[in-house]
Specification:
Blueprint lengths: L1 H19 L2 H10 L4 E2 H6 L5 H13 L3 E6 L2 E6 L1 H15 L2 H14 L9
Antiparallel strand pairs: 1-3, 2-3
Amino acid sequence: MQLCYIANMADTASDIFAALAHPTRRQILQDLKDGELAAGEIAARFSATGPTISRHLSVLRQAGLVAERREANRILYSLVGERLALSVGNFLSTVCPEQIVLREVRKRTTSRPSTSTSEA
């Protein structure tokens, strides 16, 4: 059971990093950080054809990095930022264990009330 979970996690990470590999897809994610955009609005920001942008959006959607919803005859896309943050964070924690320690140190220092003591 756990082995299956690890394999699925690896597949998910592979999908996400494959989606992030293309500069157009990274730009789409950056454009969506300010809010939902219609497919036509996204396509208008690029010199690529509509079908090419549609394929990029499909890759992002399959990786779970964007969500889509239909409104009348428009398809609206939004960023699923927490999925990106968690996946990249998990990867970094795996390959850079010191990041875990740094995160814990930051948690402790921000959760403690600051007290200033002066020693003479």
